[in-house]
């Protein structure tokens, strides 16, 4: 008796299910890549803004630290007045950046808020001191001596900590730090629909410091212009030294 061949079951249904799942995974990966690229670009711009704020604020601080104009009033110290001007300058710079004036999903992004007090929703502007291996209290890098207020170099200390470490209540800051949340809720457009991730926060830190520069000027005050003290410009060029028509090549 002749046996019949077994009936092969169709696998089309299983393949369709796998393709559907694969499409979902691919779309999810694309969404993550797009949103991460946007977040990475925005984070780099936030770091750039932090550097600009730190540079602008310390410039404004030293513009007013020796003046008599007021920003706070009410008997504030010269440091407090200068920090107020620095905060206003930093906020003005933050308001100018294009990233925080674009429309995202119908809502307008607000510029980062610069504050002199610590807050989770703002950028903290701090005056302080920047310590490197060249500082008199720090000798050597990466292992500073016992007198150095930093465990690792370079480092930034707030003005209060630097004054305490150096024992100088009148110590002036030589650096400014912009640190904090530059945008508390950057919208995730695709990941919001797929994974429920609505937004992320962008944080950045930058420190600007006043660095002393040293210059060296070399002035030749020698009265001699003879060959022994000054190289001739025509070294190696045949010349008629005696005027008799015979040319010789001088030596260096």
What do these coordinates show?
The protein is 34% helix and 17% strand. The relative contact order is 0.13. The longest helix has 53 residues, at 12-64. α1 packs across α4. The chain has helices at 12-64, 78-94, 159-166, 189-195, and strands at 103-104, 107-108, 114-115, 123-131, 155-158, 175-187, 199-209. The chain contains four helices and seven strands. A hairpin with a 2-residue loop joins β1 (103-104) and β2. The strands form two sheets. Strands 3, 4, 5, 6 and 7 form a five-stranded mixed sheet that branches. It has a two-stranded antiparallel ribbon with strand order 1-2. It is elongated, with a radius of gyration of 34 Å. It has 252 residues and is of the alpha+beta class.
């Amino acid at each position: 008796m002749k046996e019949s061949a077994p009936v092969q079951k169709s696998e089309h249904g299983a393949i369709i299910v796998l393709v559907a799942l694969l499409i979902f995974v691919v779309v999810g990966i694309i969404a993550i890549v797009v949103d991460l690229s946007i977040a990475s670009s925005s984070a780099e711009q936030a770091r750039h803004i932090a550097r600009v704020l730190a540079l602008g604020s310390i410039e404004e601080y030293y513009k007013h630290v020796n003046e008599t104009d007021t920003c706070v009033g009410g008997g504030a110290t010269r440091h407090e007045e200068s920090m107020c001007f620095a905060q206003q300058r930093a906020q003005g710079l933050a308001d100018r950046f294009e990233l925080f004036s674009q429309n995202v999903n119908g809502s307008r992004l607000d510029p980062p808020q610069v504050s002199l007090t610590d807050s989770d929703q703002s950028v903290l502007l701090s005056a302080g001191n920047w310590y490197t291996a060249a500082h008199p209290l720090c000798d050597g890098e990466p292992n500073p001596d016992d007198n150095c207020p930093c465990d690792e170099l370079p480092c930034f200390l707030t003005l209060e900590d630097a004054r305490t470490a150096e024992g100088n209540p009148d110590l002036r800051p030589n650096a400014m730090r912009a640190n904090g949340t530059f945008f508390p809720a950057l919208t995730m457009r695709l990941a919001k629909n797929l994974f429920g991730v609505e937004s992320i926060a962008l944080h950045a830190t930058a420190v600007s410091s006043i660095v002393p520069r040293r210059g060296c000027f070399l002035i030749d005050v020698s009265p001699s212009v003879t060959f022994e003290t000054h190289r001739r410009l025509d070294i190696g060029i045949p010349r008629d030294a005696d005027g008799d028509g015979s040319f010789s090549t001088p030596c260096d």
